[in-house]
Amino acid sequence: MRTSRNTNKYRNKKSKVFPRYMQEKLAITVLVITLALFALVMILYNLMANKKEDYNQIVLSQQEYDSRVIPFKRGDIMDRNGTYLAASEKVYNLILDPKQIMSDPDAYLEASVTALTECFGYDRTEILNLIQEKKDKQYVRYAKQLTYDDKDKYEKYKSDKATELKKSGKGIRGIWFEDEYKRVYPYNSMGSKVIGFSNSDSMSGTGGIEQFYNSTLMGVNGREYGYLNDDSNLERVIKPASNGNTVVSTIDVNIQKIVEKYINEWQQQTGSKQIGVIVMDPNNAEVLAMADGKSFDLNNPRALRPEYTEDVLRQLGIQEAIDDYKRKNKDAEPLTAETVFQHYNNEQILSLGTQVAWNQTWRNFTISDGFEPGSTEKIFTVSAALEEGAITGKETYECNRFLEVGGHKIHCVSRYGHGLITVEQGLMKSCNVVMMRIASQMGKEKFYKYQQIFGFGSKTGIDLPGEADNKTNIYQADTAGDADLATNSFGQNFNSTMIQMAAAYCSVINGGSYYEPHVVKQILNEQGSVIKKVDPVLVRETVSESTTKFINEALYKTVNAEGGTGGAAKVAGYKIAGKTGTAEKFPRDKTNYVVSFCGYAPADNPQVLVYVVIDEPHVEDQPHSTYASEVFRKIMTEILPYLNVFPDTDVDQALPSDEASKLPEQEGITRETEAGSEGETAAEEAGTETSSQAAPTMENGQQVPEEYLNPSEEYVNRPEGEDSVLPGGVPGETGDSSESQPASEEETAAQ
Fold first, then answer.
1. Do 344 and 322 form a contact (C-beta atoms < 8 A)?
2. What does pTM read for this prediction?
């Protein structure tokens, strides 16, 4: 066999010698890596040997071990007698754990689905699909706010089936219940404006006590923690929830029911744009009841009232869309009803309209809406004048249908005038002329100073959200003209809220103490202990005892004496006192009015005050104070016995005699002629036109009939065809000051 001699020769030529220094570096590198790996192995071994349990717990603790939120219970709301107005009821959310169920479908799926369908009547196919679709999920909230009975039914079913299922190697898994609280209002719509409602999460309230005292009613959620101990066993730590405090209101459920009963009766039989009623204790300004004509179900607050049809919602939505576009595009051309659909679709319009409807429904008329109060304001004109010494209360004035002030002929409530009339009778008969002359004698500075003292133009501070102050809707001494002063003296051309008027009335009739009105009297903790007592807050003194006595006597006669306008408010056996009101609304078209009555009992020791306001009665002839007086009478007839205010056996003997209640000119001419002359002189100095006619007559010259001079109600009796209007309007609204609209030939029929 031949071999090549050159084979090794070529191989040696191709090979290269590895340098020694590189061999040394490579050896060192290999040694370092080997040592590092050895060290790492030792470290891992040490961890496995000594730290196994610690790291095992760290890993296992990443999993969920029934760690859950424990919800707090929102505090209750009670009436003054301990009756629950709002409570939190424990309910349960049904939670599914598809991952646990699908961990062994043969063992758990069928049994668990059957349990759900048989206990709760759920659709089998729907549940099967849900579990299979979410098989990797551990938390699926399937149903909310189940009752305790629902939960108990499931627990019994599971217990009864446990033995049977265990024998077949099956079981019910992945179903549990989560605690929650549901806000419940036992009386549904009763007291809805005062109570308000809580949102579904119990974290916030809307309207009423629920909103104003939200932080008091709220609690703090607790937590249940799961962790592994040193032996890797599951341990639990519970941090309990801190429940909210209970609010005890000043509201009396029984009085609230009476008030709402007669509001509903009025709305069903006659009806009006709105009606409001406030019942207060005049000695501490506690609100015993408060309601208006637009109540709503607190358990379903977003259910629209019947009057909000789709057409109404669309109209509300169109206007809101126009306003919304203007707010967002200040420099753009305003939208119109025709162009609004270029920017908003029908669904958006209806949504906006629904929000407006909700706000209108939830709005508390008694504290949020201003209106011209009318003649109920007259007691403050008289009270201020008495306090300032502008009058003594014994003056006699002549009412001859109207006074000319600031270029306006401003009429009295009586188209024929009242003739000679005293200050007391000016209140009894609701004479505008007397009030205008008294205000003129007092002057702007003092008149408007007392409007502030009585609280007009500022918030009362009542503990409810949404109170209006009407600061921009009231004149000041430096902005009012002569005609403004004149009309303000009898309650026109400025705005007031019901709560402002009621609080001011309480101060005048209780001896002069103006208390801050309030609807809450106590705060209780979870154990029922009183942690805060809401004492009456005396804000200021308004009038003296002598002024209170004068007003109480005059308002008693307003209801009980012949010629008083409040006769319809009488309650048999009781000394009822009060004042009627009839205000012409703006625009002054002589068709829309606000009628009211503010009264109390007993007249000589007031224990309860009721204020009734009716906005635009649904009748052709609106300006009758009787509408409000009769609602007042029905309410008072029931609440006085309930409050243990006993009938006065001497009430009939306390009525004024026939002589004391005859026509004004027969009562006051001789005894106070001088005071009357002083009043006329002051009126002349103020630029008012007086009349020397001794007794009022009709257009044909005949004596005015008795029923016109001594009416049983306050009624704005307009001459047919009269085209006059009240001067000006409320400051800050559409109307301007009367001083900017002089009309010397314009006759106005004020009330």
1. no
2. 0.81
